[in-house]
Design brief:
CATH superfamily of the largest domain: Aspartate/ornithine carbamoyltransferase
Helix content: 25-40%
Structural class: alpha/beta
Number of domains: 2
Shape: globular
Strand content: 5-15%
Number of helices: 11
Order of helices and strands: HEHEHEHEHEHEEHEHHEHH
CATH architecture of the largest domain: 3-Layer(aba) Sandwich
Bound molecules: phosphoric acid mono(formamide)ester, norvaline
CATH topology of the largest domain: Rossmann fold
Number of strands: 9
Strand order of the largest sheet: 7-6-5-8-9
Length: 306
């Protein structure tokens, strides 16, 4: 049987995602209750980071330890990847010795090449195009606070990037609408060959139009990792796209503010919003660990009922 990977949100069916959310709630409950649950005893996760990370690394490493397994960290500066070893060769070697792999890298094509020769499940831990682990945690966080996301409106204010492209895939799968406001030179592109109708995705430019009546307002840095050379121009182009309390007030009264973090107060979001009562950013961050535990358990053991 083919090895199952999680390289983009659309790799899993609606049923699989719903199972993951149920399982996440159960694993989170057990962890909060202090219960030891170690189904992955003896299993090893390899974590390959070609870009920086705080949340993703901590969530995977702590999560794997809690499930009884071990996680090991490889970066460009301390592995042969940094000296040009082909990604397929790294995959062949790593997947002979360890049980599951997560990869944070540049183009989506790189993680796809890694997975194409891997004997074990591969998880996309962020590429230029997608960040499926983040949106898994974000939707779980919405469900915890407000219930089902079906039929809701998510306002995206800012760059068309890995986070927003994954929100767009999620909108189609979960049947909600992503209303995105980006500057004219930074519009959404085709990154996955999928088609999106107005019911699921609307490209706008005016942040006020996107946020009006929304259930979630979300944004991200205007300079993603790998795009640092464009920093100066981007900071100018994205200035009108800061999520302020005034902008937030156009959303529904019970709207949530989300951000994958790290955030830049006074750039893409004001401190008042990020640290304010509608913000659930710390829950999102913690839920990275709970959702990724459910994901690793699923990829290694399939659906578990105990
Ligand atoms: N949100 C997120 O992926 O954070 P890190 O870059 O710190 O892992
Ligand atoms: N869009 C950001 C997300 C960081 C978690 C980046 O790719 O740098």
């Amino acid at each position: 049987m083919a090895v199952k990977h999680f390289l983009q949100f659309s790799d899993f069916t609606l049923d699989e995602h719903q199972y993951l959310f149920r399982r996440t709630a159960e694993l989170k409950r057990r962890w909060k209750a202090g219960e030891l649950y170690r189904p992955l005893l003896g299993k090893v996760l390899t974590m390959i980071f070609e870009k920086n990370s705080t949340r993703t690394r901590v969530a995977f490493e702590a999560g794997m330890a809690q499930l009884g397994g071990h996680a090991l960290f490889l970066s460009n500066s301390d592995s042969q990847l940094g000296r040009g070893e082909p990604i397929e060769d790294v995959s062949r070697v790593v997947s002979r010795m360890t049980d599951i792999v997560m990869v944070r890298t540049f183009e989506q094509r790189i993680v796809e090449r890694f997975a194409s020769v891997s004997k074990v499940p591969v998880i996309n831990a962020l590429t230029n195009e997608f960040h499926p682990c983040q949106i898994l945690a974000d939707i779980f966080t919405y469900i915890e606070h407000r219930g089902s996301i079906e039929g809701k409106v998510v306002a995206w204010v800012g760059d068309a990037n890995n986070i927003s492209y994954t929100w767009r895939q999620a909108a189609k799968l979960f049947n909600f609408q992503l209303r995105a406001a980006t500057p004219k030179g930074y519009m959404f592109k085709d990154v996955d060959g999928a088609t999106y109708d107005d019911k699921h995705f609307v490209q706008l430019h005016d942040p006020r139009e996107a946020v009006a009546g929304a259930d979630i307002v979300t944004t991200d840095v205007c300079v993603s990792m790998g795009f640092e050379r464009e920093s100066l121009q981007r900071k100018v182009d994205f200035e009108p796209y800061e999520v302020t309390a005034e902008l937030m007030s156009l959303a529904r009264k019970d709207a949530l503010f989300m951000h994958c973090l790290p955030a830049h107060r006074g750039e893409e979001v004001s401190a008042e919003v990020l640290d304010g009562p509608q913000s659930v950013v710390w829950d999102e961050a913690e839920n990275r660990m709970h959702t990724q535990k459910a994901l690793m358990e699923y990829l290694l053991l399939g659906q578990v009922n105990d």
